[in-house]
Design a protein that fits this description.
By secondary structure, the protein is α+β, with helices and mostly antiparallel strands. The chain has helices at about 1-20, 255-265, 305-315, 335-355, 380-385, and strands spanning about 25, 35-50, 50-70, 70-85, 90-105, 110-115, 125, 135, 140-150, 155-175, 175-185, 195-210, 215-230, 235-250, 275, 280-285, 320-325, 360-365, 385-390.
Length: about 400
C-alpha cells in the first residue's frame, strides 16, 4: 500500500510537470520610453492578368518609442518605405519612397487599438494571445486585418482576414530556446470593396517569441495572394517576407554630438558642417558641397569631405544613416526633386565606397521644398544647396 501511494504521488508530480511544459501564458511587455525597430524585407513574384511582371523587392523600416499608460503600450514613430537602389551594378543603399508618421496602441494580448490613418502595421493582431494559457498544438482563432498592395491602382487597401495560431513549444533560435508559433492568415473571400472584387490566398507565418521579455524576435511569412481588382483585372503575388524585431539602445545625443564635434574640431571641414540634435537623432548638414551645375558630379577636392565624414560614421555602431539632398529654387519642381534625389544617391555611393555599410544607408531628396533662406540672392541659393546626413536612433 505504501509503495502504491508513493508510485501514485510520483505519477501525479510527473503529469503536473508534463502539463506545465505544454501550457504557457503569454503577453506583450514594453518598458516606458523604450525604443525598438522592426525591419520587414520582402521578395515576391508579381503577375498581372497571368503575365509575369517580375521579381519585386521591398523593405520597410520602422522606429518606435513606447509610452506606457496603465495596461496599454502607445507606440509612436516613423515608418520608412524603402527600395534597394543599384547604380553601375553596385548596391548604393536604399532609396526612400515614403516616410510616414505612425502611432497606435497595443495591449498585453497583442490587440491593436487607436491606429492612426495609415497602412501600418501591415498585419494587425500578429501574434495575438487569448486570455488563457496556450496549449501545444491547439488551434486558436481570431479575426483581424491585413494591408494589401494593389499593383494596377498603386494603392493599398485594408482587408478583413482570419488568423489561426498554433503554439508549438520551445525551439532553438540562434542558440537560445524561444517559444515558437505557426500562424495562418486567410482572407475573407466574401468581402468586397470598390478596389477589390475578389481576394483569396494565404500567409503562413513562423514566429519566434521571447516570452521572458514579452516581445517577438523573428518571423517569416510565405504567402500567395490572388486579387481581382476593381477594373476586373487579375493580380497575383507569390513570395515571402522576413521580420526582424530589434531593441534599440537609446542614443546619448549630447555625448554623440560632442564626439562628432571633437572629431571635426581641428579640421577645415568644421566650417562647412553644422551639427545639431534633432528628434530623429543627430544631423550633419554639409554646406558648400560643390557640384557641377545641374549634375551629381562633385568638383575637385569635394570627395575628400565625404571620405572624412565616412570615417566618423564607420565608428558609430547600431545606427542607420539617412541622407537628404536639397536644391535651390531653379528649374521646374520635377527637375529640382530629381536633382536632389540624385545628389543624395551620389553621396550614399561615396560613403559606401569609403567603407560605410550599405545596409545602414537610406537616401532621398526634397527638391527646393525645405529652404533655409529665401531663393532671392545667389548667396541665399547657395545656402539652400545642401546635403543632410541624419544619424538615426534605430
Amino acid at each position: 500500500m505504501i509503495k502504491y501511494c508513493l508510485y501514485l504521488k510520483f505519477l501525479i508530480i510527473f503529469l503536473i510537470s508534463i502539463s506545465a511544459q505544454s501550457i504557457q501564458d503569454f503577453q506583450y511587455f514594453y518598458q516606458d520610453h523604450e525604443k525598438f525597430s522592426l525591419i520587414i524585407r520582402g521578395n515576391y513574384r508579381q503577375y498581372f492578368n497571368q503575365r509575369y511582371i517580375g521579381l519585386q523587392s521591398k523593405e520597410i523600416k520602422s522606429i518606435f518609442t513606447v509610452d506606457q499608460q496603465k495596461k496599454l503600450f502607445y507606440l509612436n514613430g516613423k515608418v520608412y518605405y524603402l527600395s534597394k537602389m543599384i547604380r553601375d551594378n553596385r548596391n548604393i543603399g536604399f532609396e526612400i519612397q515614403n516616410i510616414e508618421n505612425c502611432s497606435f496602441s497595443i495591449n498585453s494580448s497583442g490587440h491593436y487599438q487607436q491606429i492612426s490613418q495609415h497602412f501600418y502595421p501591415i498585419f494587425r493582431w500578429i501574434p495575438f494571445f487569448p486570455n488563457e494559457k496556450l496549449e501545444i498544438d491547439k488551434v486558436y482563432e481570431m479575426p483581424g486585418k491585413a494591408v494589401v498592395d494593389l499593383f494596377e491602382a498603386k494603392e493599398q487597401e485594408i482587408m478583413p482576414v482570419h488568423y489561426m495560431l498554433v503554439y508549438k513549444g520551445k525551439r532553438d533560435y540562434k542558440q537560445k530556446q524561444l517559444d515558437y508559433f505557426e500562424i495562418t492568415c486567410r482572407f475573407d473571400s466574401y468581402h468586397k470593396s470598390q478596389k477589390i472584387i475578389e481576394i483569396k490566398g494565404f500567409h503562413q507565418f513562423k514566429l519566434f517569441y521571447d516570452n521572458d521579455n514579452g516581445r517577438p524576435v523573428f518571423m517569416t511569412d510565405q504567402f500567395e495572394e490572388y486579387i481581382v481588382n476593381g477594373n476586373n483585372n487579375t493580380e497575383i503575388k507569390k513570395g515571402f517576407y522576413t521580420f526582424f524585431f530589434k531593441d534599440i539602445v537609446k542614443m546619448n545625443k549630447q555625448k554623440q554630438l560632442k564626439e562628432i564635434e571633437e572629431y571635426f574640431d581641428s579640421d577645415d571641414l568644421e566650417k562647412d558642417i553644422e551639427i545639431k540634435e534633432t528628434e530623429e537623432g543627430i544631423s550633419l548638414t554639409i554646406q558648400n558641397l560643390l557640384f557641377q551645375p545641374n549634375s551629381t558630379q562633385l568638383l575637385n577636392g569635394e570627395i575628400q569631405k565625404i571620405e572624412k565624414i565616412a570615417d566618423i560614421l564607420k565608428q558609430i555602431e547600431d545606427r542607420s544613416f539617412m541622407i537628404i539632398g536639397h536644391t535651390a529654387k531653379a528649374g521646374s519642381e520635377a527637375e529640382q526633386l530629381e536633382l536632389s534625389k540624385a545628389r543624395a544617391a551620389k553621396i550614399a555611393q561615396l560613403l559606401i565606397t569609403a567603407g560605410v555599410s550599405k545596409d545602414k544607408i537610406m537616401h532621398t531628396g526634397k527638391g527646393a521644398n525645405q529652404p533655409l533662406a529665401p531663393n532671392d540672392t545667389p548667396e541665399n541659393m547657395k545656402k539652400n544647396r545642401r546635403v543632410e546626413i541624419f544619424i538615426l536612433e534605430g
